[in-house]
Predict the 3D structure of the following.
Amino acid sequence: MTDATPSPSMGGIDSRTRAELVRSLVAGDRRFHELPRDLAPEEAAEIRRRAIEEMTRTPLANIAHHSLDVRRASRRNCENFIGVAQVPMGICGPLRIRGNYVDGDVYVPLATTEAALVASTNRGCSAIREAGGAVVRVEDVGMTRAPVFRTSGIVQTQGFLRWIREHEEDLRRVAEATSHHLRLLEVRPFAFGTTVFLRFRFDSGDAMGMNMVTIACDRVVTDLIEPMTGVACVGLSGNYCVDKKPAAINFQEGRGKRIYAEILLEAPILHHNLKTNARDLVEVQYRKNLLGSIAAGAMGFNAHYANVLAAFFIATGQDPAHVVEGSLGVTCIEARGSDAVFASIFMPDVPLGAVGGGTGLDTQREALAVLGVSPDPERRGDATLRLAEILGAIVLAGELSLMAAFTSQDLARAHEKLGRGALPEPPLPT
Amino acid sequence: MTDATPSPSMGGIDSRTRAELVRSLVAGDRRFHELPRDLAPEEAAEIRRRAIEEMTRTPLANIAHHSLDVRRASRRNCENFIGVAQVPMGICGPLRIRGNYVDGDVYVPLATTEAALVASTNRGCSAIREAGGAVVRVEDVGMTRAPVFRTSGIVQTQGFLRWIREHEEDLRRVAEATSHHLRLLEVRPFAFGTTVFLRFRFDSGDAMGMNMVTIACDRVVTDLIEPMTGVACVGLSGNYCVDKKPAAINFQEGRGKRIYAEILLEAPILHHNLKTNARDLVEVQYRKNLLGSIAAGAMGFNAHYANVLAAFFIATGQDPAHVVEGSLGVTCIEARGSDAVFASIFMPDVPLGAVGGGTGLDTQREALAVLGVSPDPERRGDATLRLAEILGAIVLAGELSLMAAFTSQDLARAHEKLGRGALPEPPLPT
Amino acid sequence: MTDATPSPSMGGIDSRTRAELVRSLVAGDRRFHELPRDLAPEEAAEIRRRAIEEMTRTPLANIAHHSLDVRRASRRNCENFIGVAQVPMGICGPLRIRGNYVDGDVYVPLATTEAALVASTNRGCSAIREAGGAVVRVEDVGMTRAPVFRTSGIVQTQGFLRWIREHEEDLRRVAEATSHHLRLLEVRPFAFGTTVFLRFRFDSGDAMGMNMVTIACDRVVTDLIEPMTGVACVGLSGNYCVDKKPAAINFQEGRGKRIYAEILLEAPILHHNLKTNARDLVEVQYRKNLLGSIAAGAMGFNAHYANVLAAFFIATGQDPAHVVEGSLGVTCIEARGSDAVFASIFMPDVPLGAVGGGTGLDTQREALAVLGVSPDPERRGDATLRLAEILGAIVLAGELSLMAAFTSQDLARAHEKLGRGALPEPPLPT
Amino acid sequence: MTDATPSPSMGGIDSRTRAELVRSLVAGDRRFHELPRDLAPEEAAEIRRRAIEEMTRTPLANIAHHSLDVRRASRRNCENFIGVAQVPMGICGPLRIRGNYVDGDVYVPLATTEAALVASTNRGCSAIREAGGAVVRVEDVGMTRAPVFRTSGIVQTQGFLRWIREHEEDLRRVAEATSHHLRLLEVRPFAFGTTVFLRFRFDSGDAMGMNMVTIACDRVVTDLIEPMTGVACVGLSGNYCVDKKPAAINFQEGRGKRIYAEILLEAPILHHNLKTNARDLVEVQYRKNLLGSIAAGAMGFNAHYANVLAAFFIATGQDPAHVVEGSLGVTCIEARGSDAVFASIFMPDVPLGAVGGGTGLDTQREALAVLGVSPDPERRGDATLRLAEILGAIVLAGELSLMAAFTSQDLARAHEKLGRGALPEPPLPT
């Protein structure tokens, strides 16, 4: 474990060398990425920190305080490493799930700085638990990457697309040779003018897959498509993928995992656990999640998927920029009988992984272990599908609790203050 | 500083009591939020951790390793606190900025788990620095919240909206009484059927403002609008705000800060710093950021705002779920003369704060200090505007570097492999 | 009145000249717009027709059969005039309206080629009539045009926009000098990179106003903005207007008229007039107009505004390309009590005129007269507002009838066939 | 041919009966659709007209003046028939096309009331002709209809969708039995919560196909899906089709015909035919069709597809409400060499037919004949594909001419007025 105080383990270099390196950074003679390559990563981190401390007159004792494996983190996750951001982690649960990859209770760690998020989501968990557990299903859509090509016009485009169709097996062979984790599922073209997009979709097993999919596309494009067709690739990512931008294509076709979760809540649970009732919940669902998002021209028809997602992603080492995509989706809350509701969430576009990226970092690995998520080569992809099911259920918990909060607020008011308004009655008897 | 090993400072309770509390959590007799209120927060955290360790057979030594002020974090940021997620932090810069709130060089900490992000963004910083610095401007749009109301139809709606217009001063008075940080800027209505949205927009000074704005709306609705008009508020947030969902209204009207950053890059910088050239950069901009996002039905016309935003947000204690909104925006790269480019980014919807939320956490506070961001009551809002200018410049750096990466790739190929394709020439001489 | 058979009134030129002109068109020696300018319009039309008849071996007797004032039509509406398309016109009504500009019954002509549209809409009229009439309100948003400018970047953009704000009175003076029908209401800017859009919004009285607004913008740009600021206008229409493209800005800000219409329908009317019931109507509204349009990524949350609009537009001489904009909007159908519904339509973007464009053509003028729409200089704009109210009510009629048609279909089936399915019961008790 | 003056051919009923029928309509004793069924359609039309003339004191001589086959029009196109709207028709061309279904010159009738549209489009035709003809390609996507179903949740939904996949042959058999014109191409599901959409896509040959596809879906749903699965269909159209609403799904997946047209224009043609030049055309394309539509949140990235479409649709008997869908699409104009441009249009969503709907009306039939469009059972679908190719080329002509108009305007100004501005230079040397 590394602390801000200089440790003897840094004895690799003497203090004069260290001071000289700090000085050269401060003077601008050397950039942060230009420290000697043979420096131990911990030493490099400390030298950078000291330079910043000096230049900005800011002690970085807390950023320096962490327990990460610096060698790994600085190579696989973050260049010019100086330490960590510590994001508070809270625990929710038990969350009862009735899925294909989880059937039982889990405890869910969320890393967040937003007050009330954990408490509120935890309330949702209790409602779900009382109601017998959330039914969750996940579809493994796959990870996508869409290189963009330039042709001379529609005639060459049609020839190009014909070639692609006729050589799908070759594309698959070359793509899958880049990683035994990959299986090519589809090549979806979109073309107009002199531009062609090929949206490659891969099953990437337990990995989120963005990087391996990019490498596979690079190889396919470089070794096969360009030399064989003479059509130039302008960029390996043509934004028809779409990575980390809200987009209709991802809503329609999905990306990563497509997640469904749902629950039937009877009146007693609505009343005791969520301090609400069916009528009010359905009303706020209608005016907010449906009409409000319509009014706003929104792509997300939900209360706050993004909040729970971000906290879950940071805790479990997912890429937090993917919260953009995960914010798409539709919450439904429908009346059942006179006083129950059926609530569901739908997330069409959730990139997720149980290996790679931030999942190997120490705190994140612990969080995944708490969730019982551990990849098993014998059961390819199952660990991530488990993770996805848990995510679906916890997002449902977050929706239920926040939606209920709106109504109880409203309820309180309704009894107290309405019906005493000074606004004149409408002149027409509508 | 707290570590996983039981510390004497926890001596507030004896080990038997502690063991009993752990047992009751494990047995489910007690929920995580039901620990005795007089327990020290550090003790409570440890008891929760131990229970989870036992239930999930997962040691949480790393999650336990942190230096946060637990009392503060567990009250203001994260309930059911058990420790932290450690997110690796790297440093970029110097980043040269020519703004109204920064005029000079800054070093930018980014917290990320995505390999290459810091290195790539840092390369963008060097190009910007060589080119004389990014010109950045920020508009303080303000924070919004849009309660949703139910009327009896268009006649009552029109009366209601007339009342709102005629009582704007009253609304302001009540709203601003809830916090001396708030100034009401606008009430924008949107209505159809029996539904009315009132999008309140506030200047919230150096705070991101979501919570204080919600409280102000609650007061205005509860104390003024409902009793005076007799029109019921269905929910304090009607999704016309829009918080954390991608939406047209935020793109059009803005939310939080609206940020512009730009730079002119001559050929030598394109060549030496970015390994690219004007023609290829403009080409990939055209096919990817414009046509690709059009093809995808995207709301973001950029390469990867979300990546840089997420890393910046986590490092500086912003709400990472707001990355959803920040991913909106348009990058432009235009040819200038025969071999230079003019590049710009535009972010219409970036909620940001220099106080509140996660900005008070220890590591995040240090990151803000590195950026020279420190709120000053005498210069209300300036600290956050400085933060926004830095964000604009670092996002521009990230765009430049990634866009250049696409082209150099393409370039390499173009020289090597094109022109040898087997695809027959188009039959028509287009 | 003109018929296909050569009429003595064409005696202006002799038959040899006429034959020679036809021959030159057929031979391609002369283009259709190159006939002698002193030719009577009827003669020119016939000569073109004969040339086409010869070249394509197609008799055009029906296209030739019309009663238009050719001089006017060929000058004000359609160059290279050859005759007319005859579009069948049917009549609906009486339609009972309770608006500010109509209070009573009207008969509505619709020009359509789509079987069942008139009959179905007429059924909706009967329901509305029985229910006491549709409550309709219209807001006169105004006609817009958004020239696009090129600046050197954000600094010049901000100076430019400051200049625009400070010179709004000058802009108004110059703009309004181009037509006494125009009043400038707003200049809404939108800018990023090196591009600035200025969305001018005008009250254009009883005219739809697109052309006069374009002329006004041309003058303002040419005489004032460009010379005074040195900032170049790249195009008089920068697609931020937005004319005839579906767009968020028009949904948010409105364009032309913003129309609201609504009705409360009790059970007997639902049953007798619409062959439906409240429960089924609300159900199809929910799954189709709300969830279906959400699923589709649609901008229109309605059943078929476009159908009724197109028929109304063609009958009354509106620009049928504006159906694109009119298709935006939201239908709501909400349960009231146990067996009534409250239905509403909302059209935020309907360009309409009672003068200009096709409204002066003979058949269209008659249709407007049937609607009681006749511009009166003393009551500027009122004729078009009357037209808008009628449009709102007839669109509501169309929605009610089609939505009911879906349900009765469904109803019939529900009783007959459901509950006998072979699909196994779901394995989980949800 | 029918005229407003009572004709002897109406002698089927005596003048007293006629007067009595008129009186009953005026008195409201009888509705317009309640005339005796044995009345000749011409008589019924006249009686309705007279009643309206009396009630609204409006002579309808022009509406009455037409040459339609009333029996056919009143039965197949328009109930409560009273006459026609006469829409002026002009002629464009010759338009040179190099497609798979047209290779040569055509003359294109456009029915419009918008001054300058025909003249401007005709100018575009001349540029295309001089440049050797537009290259056009069409893909026959097919007509769609998406019934919406209600399930008990995700478990039943997944079972339902499995059943659909496993019974695709049965669905095809039942669907295709309803019309020998139909071939089922795809059933695309979309589901969330308790809602399932099945988007059926059919090849409908030369018919636009909306009606026959609806009938086929009705049969499939009623005879097969509901009885076999026990899952209820809530509405035959669930707005995931999507008919006549702008929507992402149609942009992505296409609907009707997907049309591509393009042309290379050298400097002399730009100069002589279009009064423009490459640089300015590319500039206005960039700022208007790309950035402007992005700024507006538009779904159409073009100048005015809708204008040309509407005129073409009315002339040829298409459904003018489909202009909504046709307005989607992307125009590209790219520089080639120093002074040429390559221009293209892309229309992903154009419902079209050469039989059915309004195509059988007398004037519309003539317009189709002028285009050489005549369905041939031996070459199923080819007539409509020819129509689509012509449409693509004429839309391209319209785009070229309007885009050029913007630039020449701009050009004129640039020389005259720029560089004399009073706006101070930007303070920063960007």
Observations:
- Chain C has a mean pLDDT of 93.
- The two ends of chain C are 71 Å apart (CA to CA).
- Chain C is about 45% helix and 25% strand.
